[in-house]
Design a protein that fits this description.
1 helix; 13-stranded parallel β-sheet; 180 residues; 13 strands; mainly beta
């Protein structure tokens, strides 16, 4: 399954629905849009996956949103990412509920975004579970930007974030998450 040149690659809105995507490439960009009459790509509203209802699982795939600081990679709740490559300068996950990332190798957050890797929606409930993730970003960001890995926790008191067995070497340890 390959999607490219799409503003919003996938929206899950099926009660009790389960979607599993394997061995795929999801690529959010506007490179072909100038060739479409009256084509309009809104960077701020762009994302790879928005799971409103149901569950979306992505495995052994490549998740790309390499050109835009605005928007996010994954949005919503009940999202599971296993053994994938993720590359995007924007926030990787805007969490509105349960989100799990397990086995992201070759993850890169490029650009000089100053954005958190994960942002929790205000008043969200559930948990963010991140394990076995290797993520890198430019050395300049590591020394110059004071951005948390997980943002928004202060506005979601019933939300929990768990990070284990990860290598996020370009983030200073004091910027994993704000202390309440």
């Amino acid at each position: 399954f390959r999607m490219r040149g799409i503003q919003n690659v996938l929206i899950s809105n099926q009660p009790n629905g389960f979607l599993k995507i394997s061995n795929s490439t999801l690529d959010c960009h506007s490179r072909e849009w100038p060739y479409v009459k009256d084509g309009y790509f809104n960077e701020a509203d762009s994302y790879l996956i928005y799971s409103k209802i149901g569950q979306v699982t992505i495995e052994n795939s490549e998740l790309l949103k390499v050109e835009y600081l605005e928007g996010c990679g994954l949005k919503g709740k009940n999202i599971v990412v296993n053994n994938c490559v993720m590359e995007m300068p924007c926030t990787w996950v805007y969490a509105e509920g349960d989100v799990t990332l397990d086995g992201v190798h070759g993850g890169f957050m490029g650009g000089d975004s100053g954005l958190p890797m994960f942002e929790v929606a205000p008043n969200a409930t559930g948990s963010l579970r991140v394990q076995n993730v290797r993520m890198s970003r430019s050395q300049w960001q590591a020394t110059q930007q004071q951005t948390y890995v997980v943002g928004g926790l202060n506005n979601a008191p019933k939300y929990h974030a768990y990070i284990q067995n990860c290598d996020m070497g370009e983030w200073l340890p004091e910027y994993i998450a704000p202390v309440a």
